[in-house]
Amino acid sequence: MRDALLNLHRSSLLILSCLWLISCGQKADPSPLFSIFPDENYTPQEAWAISDTVIQDKNQFNPGITRNQWWLGMTFTNPSDSTRQFLFVPNNPHINRISVFENEAFTASMELGDNFPFGQRPFLDRDLVIPVVVPPAGSLRYLLLLDKVGETFHIEPEVLDFQTFYQRKSNDTMVMGWILGWMSIIFIFAVFFAIELKAWSGAIYAAYVLSISLWLSTHWGLTFQFIWPYQMDWVGIARPFFNLLTNVLILLLVVKFFPPTYSGKSTAKWIWGIIIFQLILLLSILLPWGILESIPFKIIFLQTTLIVSLITSILVLVYSFIQWRAKVPLAGYYLIGIAFLALFGIVLQLNQKLIPLGIPHYLLDFGSAFGLMGETGMITAAFAKRASLFKKEKEGLVIEILEKEKKVAEQLIQVQEDERQRLGRDLHDSIGGMLASLFIKTEMLSDSYPSEPISELKQMIEQSIQEARSLSHNLTPHYLEENGLENVLKLQIELLSQKYPIEINFYYQVSSPITKSRQLILYRICNELLQNIVKHAQAQEALLSIVEQEGKIELIAEDNGRGMDTTSPHSGIGLKNIQERIRYLKGSLELESNPTGTTLTILIPLHA
User: Fold this and answer.
1) Chain centroid to CA 179: how far?
2) Which conformational region is residue 52 in: left (phi greater than 0), alpha (psi within -120 to 50 degrees), or beta?
3) What is the C-alpha separation between 96 and 112, in angstroms, rounded?
4) Could you tell me if 190 and 338 lie in one domain?
5) What is the DSSP secondary structure assignment for residue 357, as one 8-state letter?
6) What is the b/e burial string over 442-480, where b = at least 16 CB atoms within 10 angstroms of the residue's CB?
7) Are 373 and 287 in the same domain?
8) Total tally of structural domains belonging to the chain
9) Which run of H or E residues covers position 446?
């Protein structure tokens, strides 16, 4: 994951460098000069007359949020002896209506803009392109009525031949493809983080990336061209809608990614207040009140949107800075990313709506995208770092849980052993002592009153004493720590050989030290295996082998008995207890059985 993010950062730097070189290398033809004046409900005839008195001396125009329609006059000349075709590009794809008048005409030769379906444009392009045909050795005067009332209005017209236009279009398409491709990669990463971290912040980030991608596509006019070409009502509100939605999501993202646990509580309250206010604005757009149809309300709404957008940027910067000052992990990533975006966003917002700064149209079109690429790169790096930290924390918790489970299991085992020792002592001291006394009394009786019943009683008491000794030894293996596992098992096998008609071969080769608790569990496993063999296998010969190999203990128990049904849930008395002990030691068991015998192979790590 870390290598992938490193490659992602390198790619982002390469893309930003390429975009900058392309923007610097965009050498357009000299911008045409034009005259522009506000419309005061002029008729086309009056507008032509006024246009004759206004000098064509402008090549860009940016009044911010405008309350008027504007008349734009322009003259095209063709000194050559052949007809020339040009494309007039205003470099603003969001003009509501453009009425085109040619050569003193009083009726429009064409009308286009966002108030008309996309397919009705005279030239199908994301921008509002007007074809111009100038006759040989002649000139052509144009008068355009531009309707952008109640919205931000800026144009930087260009007149391009077809070759230059398509070259420009190819470059723009490549840049937009790079940017949207980048955002798609970031979106995939965001979805991955949402699933991996199982946190709301990841899902909010994915929604933020999707919303900002839609805002970019709408800003470039791509959504009207490809997604909603017939939704003229929606195209007018799409940009403020996605603008507000993006603001809400970025604010949600920072407070969810950095909950104000230690610092920033007062700033977080402001953030929640701005979130609620912008949600109300979003709701007012979607409800059928027609709030944006009234020009005064529309201007107030857009100005309010500008103000809350600036407040959003400031709040995110301040909150990230507070978290960074409080040494909250990863806050620095957000601070750098948001600062990168805010640098572009604030300047572009001021240029478009408050203080015209003369920024070229190329940066107006793609400046926000450059900022977003830097911002999303840093935020994605923060999520990647959080995923790495989350993985380490998860691994640490797993280890901690395993340690606690191990301690609990050891305590349970110790409690069981203490209880076994108590029972073994009681069996040895109480019942064993009573049986020994009874044996002595029986001997005395047999000396005084020799008879067959008394001899049989004496023999039964002697067998009971041996059984009690065997049970006591099984419950409390004597001197396991002092004598070692090998000697204790030898003694146990010797006792079993005396009691049962079976030959048990024992092989032990372990050189590494084994902890007391591990020796005790191994003893229990071996004892259970031996008891199963002598009581149920009906075998004449058996083998118990304990060998150390490659950091593991290999324990093999083999007999030539009648075998066992491994498919039966009741097969192998005590096998379940053996499996539980092996599972506790993180070992493995293999069982092979047939009518000629049974072999159990157990592998247990020397150290857990």
Assistant:
1) 21
2) alpha
3) 8
4) yes
5) -
6) beeeeeeeeeeebeebbeebeebbeebeebbbbbbbeeb
7) yes
8) 3
9) helix 432-448
CB atoms within 10 A of CB 508: 15
Residue 321 shares a structural domain with residue 202 = yes
Query: Is 0.85 topped by the overall pTM?
Result: no
Pair (40, 152) in one structural domain? yes
First CA to last CA distance, the chain: 30
Lowest mean pLDDT of 174-183, 331-340, 409-418, name the range: 409-418
For every residue of 7-21, DSSP letters joined together read HHHHHHHHHHHHHHH
Provide the CATH number for the domain around residue 43.
2.60.40.2380
Look at residue 174 and tell me if it is in a domain.
no
Same-domain status, 56 and 190: no
Q: Which residues contact 571 (CB under 8 A, 6 or more apart)?
A: 564, 565
Whether 21 maps to a domain, the answer reads no
CA distance 107 to 256: 57
Residues 143 and 184 occupy one common structural domain: no
Give the model confidence (pLDDT) of 250-265 as tens digits: 999 989 888 887 678 8
pLDDT score of 30: 52
The backbone region for 179, taken as left when phi is positive above 0, alpha when psi lies in -120 to 50, beta otherwise, is alpha
d(CA 309, CA 314): 9
In a domain? residue 549? yes
Extract the tokens encoding 205.
Answer: 């980030």
Range of the domain at 325: 180-356+368-383
Integer Cα distance of 9 and 3 in angstroms: 10
* pLDDT tens profile 433-452: 676 677 676 777 666 666 77
Q: Which amino acid is at 10?
A: R
Q: Say if residue 478's pLDDT is above 60.
A: no
**Cβ neighbours of residue 171 under 8 Å, at least 6 residues apart?**
22, 26
Distance (Å, whole) CA 394 – CA 221: 45
Q: What 3 state SS string does 560-603 have? A: CCCCCCCCCCCCCCCHHHHHHHHHHCCCEEEEEEECCEEEEEEE
pLDDT tier at 417, thresholds 50, 70, 90:
low
- Tokens matching residue 471: 């049970």
| CA distances, 175 to each of 16, 65, 223, 250 (Å) | 10, 28, 16, 25
Task: Output b/e per residue, 302-319; b: 16+ Cβ within 10 A.
Answer: beebbebbbbbbebbbbb
569 has a pLDDT exceeding 60: no
Q: For residues 179 and 366, is the Cβ–Cβ distance under 8 A?
A: yes
- 235 and 373 fall within a common domain: yes
